Amino acid sequence: xxxxxxxxxxxxxxxxxxxxxxxxxxxxxxxxxxxxxxxxxxxxxxxxxxxxxxxxxxxxxxxxxxxxxxxxxxxxxxxxxxxxxxxxxxxxxxxxxxxxxxxxxxxxxxxxxxxxxxxxxxxxxxxxxxxxxxxxxxxxx
Length: 141
Prior knowledge:
This protein is an all-alpha fold. It has helices at residues 2-17, 42-58, 63-99, 104-109, 121-140. It has one domain (2-140). The two termini are 13 Å apart. 33% of the residues are buried.
């Protein structure tokens, strides 16, 4: 059961902690639990906690550990690469649409794109460390 509970706890701690970190500019509300960006990365926390607890519970030779590790690496790459670039592109597109003089068509048809959907490398590393720490603590209690 720890293999299910501990990663969920890590994700919850990561998401709630975003409220208390000034640089995130987040307010305490239900939407923070689904935030795509900010410090620390919830995606990194949940996947690294999952990989760590599987390694601790079943051992690193267990095939599920390898699957979890690959899943974690793909998730981390996506969070710092693809999703971060999508957020950057969203910001540029939003500025272009805002700069148009006669953009009523675009304003009505297309809402502003989400700009904060990825993570910086520091946010990702913080999420990984948080996930590992929570998994280790959870394993021993």
